[in-house]
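2024-03-11 09:14:02 DEBUG pipeline.ingest accepted 1 chain
2024-03-11 09:14:02 DEBUG pipeline.ingest length=368
2024-03-11 09:14:03 DEBUG pipeline.predict start
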Amino acid sequence: MFMGSVLKRGGWWQVRLVSLLSLMMVTLSLASCNAGTSTVSSSVVLNSGPPDRSAGAFTTYPVSTLGGSPEAIVVGPDGNLWFTELNRGRVGYLNPQGQPLREFALPDVTAASYALTVGPDKNLWFTNSSLGKIGFVTTAGKFRQFPLSSPFARPVGIAAGPVADNALWFTESAANIGGQIVPAIGRITTSGTITEYPIRNLSGGAMATPTSVPQMIVRGPDDKMWFTDAGNNTISSITMAGSITQYPIPTANSRPFSIIAGKANDLWFTEQNAIGHFSIATGTITDEYPLPTSGSGVRGLALGPDGSVWCSQFQSNSLSKLLLPAGSFTTYPLEGNGERPDQMVLGPDGLLWFTAPGSNSIDAFALP
């Protein structure tokens, strides 16, 4: 039986709980610059009102459930910032002005809500990674869940498909297909009908010992679904008919995770210490931009209003902007706060919003 590892955060398994009292204003000193990057000073403010819009400022909104460990974050159909809590099986929201912050508990006591997306039905769809389910919550807080073919499926990423498809697509590490437990890409309609497509080894070998560990997924501008595969070390696509194509990443064992669509018929994805770029037009990985700090733990991705690429660094506790065409980075550190920034989204207010499981908070960053 194949059991892919899907919830590992760069080798750091346990989320540190930080008292809300420790989330006070701090000023970060200018850190020493590394080759190919610049690091700027920034500040973090604990707030219950509107976020600080001063260039480079962070505003922190603590999650009320102790140890919730917020993970995914998206802009909901109501304009609020919706998020999941991995450790407490909850989905919550915060409006862009910082109030109110509300949380809804899943019916399953041991649920681990992970990825999150807006479905074609305008509900918030999520992966229940611990119990092998796909579910949704309405903006009023009503839940419904659908079990996958195997309780060990460990679904991770989820994204809405093309408008004409009217369904959602997700990754899973252990689907039960034809009596075999294999990694797969799944499709679920808004009424709960599920179809699963097995992922073969990159080498094309037998599925008896599968290597695929699919992670996050996104709809591309070509209306295919694109996903990262940490086990096969690929960026891969799947058509609406279920045909999968795999593209090897030049760097061995790069452990790709997040993936987003760019603005030029392209995709951006994270590696364990780099940002990668994929051209859909040519079907090639055109560039890999390494972070100058080893072990930074690149995690989340988001596009700025100007199409610039931003990433979060889970291990080095910072946000960075990729500067093109030079390929260098400008970094905004959060050292001393233990936030460990994770998933990111550009809010309707033009701020970058991200989850911070280390400080159990949702944070806003004012772009410089």
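2024-03-11 09:14:41 DEBUG pipeline.report The chain has one domain: 21-365.
2024-03-11 09:14:41 DEBUG pipeline.predict end
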